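Escalation from tier 1.

The customer reports that the assembly of two entities below gives different structure tokens on two consecutive runs. Tier 1 could not reproduce it. I'm attaching the input and our single run for tier 2 to review.
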Amino acid sequence: MPEALKGPAAFGAAALLVIWGGLPWLPDAWGVRFGTPYLVFFSLAVAGSAGFFMLLNWGPVRQPRSALAAFASILLVYVATVGGVVAFGYWYYPQFETPRVAALKPGGERVGEQRGRAVFLTPQFSCFACHTIEALGIRGGQRGPDLSSVGRLAEARKPGVSAEDYLREAIVDPWACFTPLPSSGLIECQAVVDPAKTYPQMMPPGAKDRLTAQELGDLIAFLKSLRSAGERDGKRS
Amino acid sequence: MPLDFPLIGARSAVWLMAQLHLFFAAFVLGAPIFIVVSEWLGLRTGDARYERLARETMKVVGIAYSLTAVFGVLFAFVLMGPYQPITNYLFRALYPVWIAYGAFILLETVCMYLYWYTWEPLGRSAAGKRTHIGIGVLLNVLGTVVMLLMNAVTGFMNTPPRPIESATLWAMIDNAAWWPLNLHRFLGNVTFGGFVVALFAAFMFLTSRKDEDRAFYDWMGYIGNLIGVGALITMPLAGYVLAKELFVYDAQLATFMMADKLSGYFVMQGLLVVLLFLGANFYMWLSMQRIEGGARFAPHMKAVFGVLLAGGIVWVVPQNFFPDLLAKTPAGVSEQALILPERFTFLGLMVAKALAVTAIIIMTFVTYLLYRRARATGAILWGRIDPMAQYVLIFIPAVAIYLMGLMGAIRSFTRMDYHIYGALKDVTPYWYTVTLGHSSIMAAIITLLFFVLLTFVFWIGFVVAKSHA
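Tier 1 run:
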């Protein structure tokens, strides 16, 4: 390694040693405990800083010898810059994730439920933009409730109303009854919106006009089948 | 929804066309401001480089002007089909603004061609040159009016007057976001114009074979970067003014933007602005090496970079890794691991971020002071700069254009599921706020498309023209 690059490399190595070898072992009395995501964050910051100083010490680069080489090198810098920023964002912030779908379990869903899952993940209907189904590994948006156990919860949301009918109403006429926040401790849906107890109502209007009867039925069948992972497996067996 | 757009959907089509139109518009509005100043400096100082800078940049503007118009028309087309309700609403509500917009676009185009084609005939005498500069000033005035008119429409969509039913035309134009947007976009256009000129200079430097050309494009890159950085330094303040007006207008809108769904965008904004400042200072560091005796100032710069990097890390450090109000902890990760220890919570707050950005700006001033000091004691060997500096001048516009794309998406998303906030709902299938990941991919695609188009402009306007000559 050239002499000029040794300094930043040594700094980077020492800082990484402190981050991974020192920070996790600080006494509890100090009240300082950084979780792994922060340690990774600091490591990236150190690596980036060391890399930057290496670049400073690099020395002159060669002028491209042909126009084609100049074009190629310019394009490379451009694509690497934009690609690097996007890649960092994907690691850094969960909203960067577009829905990830876990593999189907053997003997899992019925045909209708599978079609309902497809409706859920169709960008046109955009259910995933606000809803996550953690139990199935579908990491969608965070504004609406996690639907991992919506099938079970729907049975108790409105006394005297079946899970299927409640789900239909919640999709077609979401203003009829507001979904309680998990932290509220409430089970039944609420007639009046309350920011402390219910989700803000942001379901899109006109779902009935956009979804065909078949699609709506499939979506309801899919949602009804979501009873959190354990219960789903039990039901299937 | 009356019509949709095949394959990519109406929202993506509008997004693509609107942003490409705005990128080119930002350049053709921002660049003429310093083109005229450069032409005037050329007349005043007799330094032929200013004249050449003004003329070559204007040639790029001339070609880019056509592309601005093309993407403007395509933008209008994709709006007219799938987004008829909002198009009709805006035309009905702000009809005189659209009429004025058409008239001023026509005047601006006439003035632009007049400015370009009278360059040589009017340049033969000092009086003619002054007249030509006057046409350039008029071009800028007309361009600024066009920008004000369109900002009125954009601002109206974000912050319409309340109650909207009884609002006068002037109240709709002079909405809460109008002047902050005018200020923000004016400074943004100058920044953008400066960085694109630097990109052009870097492109020409790397493809030049003659030492005299390299010397000129080295100087041009330096000036472009200086303009870009000079205006960039003022941008955080203009951003604060715009955000403050949005907070005053509607707290829910502001919370959605800064503390909820869009909060991640601002973290990315922090990262991108830090990269811009790092790039600009790195370029100055490399510039200093081509000054006779300038290398002796280099060690001081390392402390500057230390502060810049520390400031950057503070700006990007999150208070927790799930800034969304309704976010949940992923399975298998303790919530505590995602939250800063209490003693360091201040690092995630605005007070630390503001301090960090202030330190970054001050250090950038220090860099320029060191550069001036070096320049005072040694001659600048233009053209002898490390070619790496030209790649830095490519890196900076790449970040700036991507940043502008992402920030444009934020401004649009603050309307939530409204076309006109609180007044006209978006009932298309694309009403929802997309994830940051989706926006970042869109911004990346548009940035690369814009770059390809710019490269085409540089190539057709200069490389091909030169080889033909």
